Amino acid sequence: MGAGTGVITRSIVKNMLPNTRLHVFEKDSEMRKGLQVKFPEAFYYEDACEIIKSLGNSEGTLDAVFSGLPFTNFNKNLRTKIVDEVYRSLRPGGILVAFQYSTQMKKTFQASFKEVDISFVPKNFPPAFVYICEK
Questions:
Q1: CB 118 within 8 A of CB 96
Q2: pLDDT (tens digit per residue) in 22-35
Q3: How many other C-beta atoms are found inside a 10 Å radius of the C-beta of residue 112?
Q4: Distance of alpha carbon 108 from its chain centroid, rounded?
Q5: Which partner from 46, 73, 84, 127 sits 20 to 30 angstroms from 53, CA to CA?
Q6: Which are the contacts of 108, defined by CB distance < 8 A and separation ≥ 6?
Q7: pTM of structure
Q8: Residue 86 and residue 64: Cα distance in Å, rounded?
Q9: Domain 60-135 bears CATH identifier 3.40.430.10
Q10: CA distance 21 to 93
């Protein structure tokens, strides 16, 4: 989610196991078009609130969700809706990996996930927090 220019997507594609399906959510249409050219094997969507719909309304099937979404820029209702959608899409033991530039989402993630680990990555520019949330 929030794939942007595809830096992280490139790493995901490089490390995917055979028969893995990659669903990419990017709101910006120009960035989404660029990603489709770079990674034609993926499935593309605009709205991160529609993960379950993209899976054919099948809940609890994803192993992992990677997010670069700028949750700080979203209102509380949208943040909650997206986190709920991610949680419902993950299988038991599935993980959400979210890159953030503050700890604002800590309580929101802790309210949904059984385990939330946070790492600080000072070498990232700008420095970032990486959340790993397990269902």
A1: no
A2: 999 999 999 999 99
A3: 16
A4: 15
A5: 73
A6: 71, 79, 80, 83
A7: 0.92
A8: 9
A9: no
A10: 18
